[in-house]
Amino acid sequence: MPRETAECRELLQRARQGDKDAVGELFGRHRERLRRMVELRMDGRLRSRLDASDVLQESYLEFARSLPDYLEQPEAPVFIWLRHLTGRKLQALHRKHLGTGIRDAAREITLQRGALPEASSQALASQLLGRFTTPSEAAGRAELQLRVKDALDGMDPIDREVLVLRHFEQLSNSETAQVLELTEGAASNRFVRALKRLKKALESASS
């Protein structure tokens, strides 16, 4: 049985006994973390048709339908399972609205028995650098953003994903290791390596 908090164990037990409110509470506990993941990985071309709430609604319906099977044999903590389920739902919506050409426009991370949309380096660089307001700052930001994007693109895919999970999605090292099916030591080492590479790119851009 995966380790869960006492509150989560209680909700799972209530859900096992048929308490529908507990199902909603379980999903609600993780909604904001799931929203962060969806917003980070949603293809920009989808944003005129869908928003994160649409994806989460689809995910909740799948969660409620699949929960009895999960409770029979939980192989991962409920958040890790729910994050994977939501990622699959996001990927299905990508394919539905953007077609099979999605692979050409946005790479996928094939992990944890399925494909998950990859956050674009441009979006990550933009989030990392924040917003500049003056014309001179905007010009410097564009150059720095390009350097950061290049640094992210040049990383080993797993190192890059570790950085996304830890820094942007704010998963713990333990959760990151479970998502990527790594040991906690390996996940930690890759995160440190990715941070060093990113720091070097930022220092180079500012010199």
Characterize the main sheet.
2 strands, antiparallel
Query: Could you tell me the radius of gyration in angstroms?
Result: 19 Å
Secondary-structure-derived class: mainly alpha
Distance linking N and C termini: 51 Å
pLDDT < 50 runs, ≥5 residues = 102-114
CATH class of the largest domain: Mainly Alpha
CATH superfamily of the largest domain: RNA polymerase sigma factor, region 2, helix turn helix motif
Total strand segments: 2
The proportion of strand residues reads under 5%
Second-tier CATH architecture of the largest domain: Orthogonal Bundle
- The secondary-structure element order is HHHHHEEHHHHH
As for the CATH topology of the largest domain, it is: Rna Polymerase Sigma Factor, Chain: A
In DSSP terms, counting alpha (H) and pi (I) runs of 4 or more, how many helices? 10
> Can you give the mean pLDDT?
84
**Total individual domains:** 2
Estimate the global geometry from the Cα principal axes: globular
Spatial arrangement of strands, main beta sheet: 1-2
Helix content: over 70%
Descriptive notes:
The protein is mostly helical and 207 residues long. It folds into 2 domains: 118 residues, Orthogonal Bundle (Rna Polymerase Sigma Factor, Chain: A), CATH 1.10.1740; 88 residues, Winged helix-like DNA-binding domain superfamily/Winged helix DNA-binding domain (Arc Repressor Mutant, subunit A, Orthogonal Bundle), CATH 1.10.10.10. Helix content is 72%, strand content 4%. The chain contains 10 helices and 2 strands. It has a two-stranded antiparallel sheet. Strand 1 and strand 2 form a beta hairpin. The longest helix is centred in the C-terminal third of the chain and has 23 residues. The protein is globular, with a radius of gyration of 19 Å. About 6% of the residues have low confidence.
